[in-house]
């Protein structure tokens, strides 16, 4: 797929007196984080060039993540120039994209890796070249990242497995649709799934296989399982919402009452929230805005220095769960929220804004 480029225009040069006043404002110590800075920060003489290397843009969640990144106040006012690199679900492609950003001397990199282990080497190269790298959504192995902003996927795996156990009464046959093998989200959600399943000895996993976060792959996989195990599947764990939606569609296509085979997902994309309202599945919300905009704020803190104030509203929304501090923590954990029919409309409004 072609690169997605979002380029903002530099703000017009300020008059001498106004420029001096703005500089004095930026030099002040950060204010308490009860709310984002009320006055837009003037753009620097030259925008920060930030590359966002994401594992792939076919799925709805990463599309949401990219949209939220581009909506960050620093991008919209010209402080930051964002270039989004589509990794096309391939670790080598992402490594080559890092080489490009290093050669072109980008100021900073936001990284959403496809592979936990393979993602570490390009981060090493960038940091060695003096380019800070902040991870978001998925992780790399080791402590090579400058910082990380994202959800704990082990917790997500536990939450979805517990929801399914409740739906099936803690017994029966299930199938598990996994994410791309080797990605941190797949590894950690599987760990959470298995922790819960280990406590339920009357549950049998008939099959588990990756659908690579793909709705189409998941639908085909689920259709095959329904044929291979006729009348035997009592529940489905799908490690993201696109996979859950594919499984739901396969069940309905087979003419089976969806309420007889509970399906659980993760992410909180719009189509999944709508399916929750219809009683077709359950899911947990991971906040694309908090991940993307939070990561950019942390990266800007590295580039600007101690005077930088976080500009996204997410820091006030999650002030208790992920306090900003001085903006230099190694990890910021965004909380999960279970989506149920009672709160579905509120979440739909949030993701469709």
Query: What would you say the CATH architecture of the largest domain is?
Result: 3-Layer(aba) Sandwich
**Which structural category fits the helices and strands?**
alpha/beta
Rg measurement, Å? 22 Å
Strand order of the largest sheet: 1-3-2-4-5-6-12
What's the count of strands?
13
Q: Which parts are unreliable, with pLDDT below 50 for 5 consecutive residues or more?
A: 1-41
- Averaging pLDDT over every residue, what do you get? 90
User: What general form does the structure show?
Assistant: elongated
**How far is the first residue's CA from the last residue's CA?**
26 Å
If you consult CATH, what is the topology of the largest domain? Rossmann fold
Helix tally equals 13
CATH class of the largest domain: Alpha Beta
Taking the sheet with the most strands, its summary is: 7 strands, mixed
Tell me roughly what share of residues is in helical segments: 40-55%
The share of residues in extended strands comes to 15-25%
Kindly give the count of domains: 2
H/E series, N to C? EHEHHEHEHEEHEHEHEHEHEHHEEH
> CATH homologous superfamily name of the largest domain?
Response regulator
Domain Periplasmic binding protein: 51-305
Family: Belongs to the bacterial solute-binding protein 2 family.
Pfam family, one: Peripla_BP_4
Organism: Delftia acidovorans (strain DSM 14801 / SPH-1)
């Amino acid at each position: 797929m072609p690169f997605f480029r979002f380029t903002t225009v530099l703000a017009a040069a300020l008059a001498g007196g106004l420029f001096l006043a703005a500089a004095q404002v930026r030099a002040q110590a950060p204010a308490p984080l009860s709310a984002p800075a009320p006055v837009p920060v003037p753009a620097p003489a030259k925008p920060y060039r930030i590359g966002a290397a994401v594992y792939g843009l076919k799925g709805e969640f990463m599309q949401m993540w990219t949209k939220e990144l581009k909506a960050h106040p620093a991008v919209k006012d010209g402080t930051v120039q964002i270039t989004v690199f589509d990794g096309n679900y391939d670790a080598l492609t992402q490594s080559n994209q890092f080489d490009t950003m290093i050669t072109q001397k980008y100021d900073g990199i936001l990284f959403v890796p496809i592979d936990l282990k393979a993602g570490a080497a390009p981060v090493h190269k960038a940091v060695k070249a003096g380019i800070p790298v902040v991870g978001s959504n998925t992780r790399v192995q080791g402590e090579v990242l400058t910082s990380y902003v994202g959800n704990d996927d082990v917790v997500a795996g536990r939450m979805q497995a517990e929801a399914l156990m409740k739906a099936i009464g803690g017994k029966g046959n299930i199938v598990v649709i996994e994410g791309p093998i080797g990605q941190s989200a797949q590894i950690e959600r599987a760990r959470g799934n298995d922790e819960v399943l280990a406590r339920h000895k009357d549950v049998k996993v008939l099959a588990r296989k990756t659908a690579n976060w793909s709705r189409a792959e998941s639908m085909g996989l689920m259709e095959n399982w329904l044929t291979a195990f006729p009348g035997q599947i009592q529940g489905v764990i799908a490690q993201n919402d696109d996979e859950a939606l594919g499984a739901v569609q396969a069940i309905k296509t087979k003419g089976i009452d969806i309420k007889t085979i509970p399906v659980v997902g993760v992410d909180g994309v719009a189509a999944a929230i709508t399916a929750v309202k219809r009683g077709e599945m359950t899911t947990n919300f991971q906040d694309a805005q908090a991940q993307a905009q939070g990561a950019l704020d942390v990266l800007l803190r590295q580039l600007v220095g101690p005077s930088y104030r976080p500009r996204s509203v997410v820091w006030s929304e999650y002030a208790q769960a992920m306090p900003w501090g001085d903006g230099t923590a190694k990890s910021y954990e965004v909380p999960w929220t279970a989506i149920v029919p009672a709160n579905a409309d509120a979440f739909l409004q949030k993701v469709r804004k």
